[in-house]
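This section describes the prediction task in plain terms. A model, or a person checking by hand, is given the sequence of a single protein chain and must write out its three-dimensional structure as a string of tokens. No templates, partner chains or ligands are provided. The sample shown here is typical of the held-out split.
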Amino acid sequence: MCITFMDYDRFAIYILSILFPLVMAKQVKEKPENLNGNNTDVTSKIDAIKELIFGENIQAYDSEFEAVKRDILSKKKDLENLIDDVKSELIQSIDSLSTDLNIRITDLEDSMNEKIETLDQKKVNRKLLGDLFIKLGEKIGE
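The expected answer:
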């Protein structure tokens, strides 16, 4: 059976709930002036009891939590760097697409203007042709 951190935590709370009243009662009997004064003696005694009960386990948990914390901070830094890289790449891609789009729009405008000029020339040529036919018809009619 595997004992988890929560099991140790529950066990510690149980033990402390049993020992705390005993320690407090003993302290009140020994030094009644501590009730109004310094509370650090009680805290240090509780810490001593926790150290006796759990000892190396608490230190192992602390070192594991510190390792996990360092790992999380490292991963966070890596992700922030990755986000910054992706952000700069996206901005560069958007700028490139914008430039390409402007070039294509300019090319389309130029192409449309050329086609409009060609159509205008065709209209003019038809008009000229029509005028020539009229003149030809007049000359034939003379």
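For orientation: The mean pLDDT is 78.
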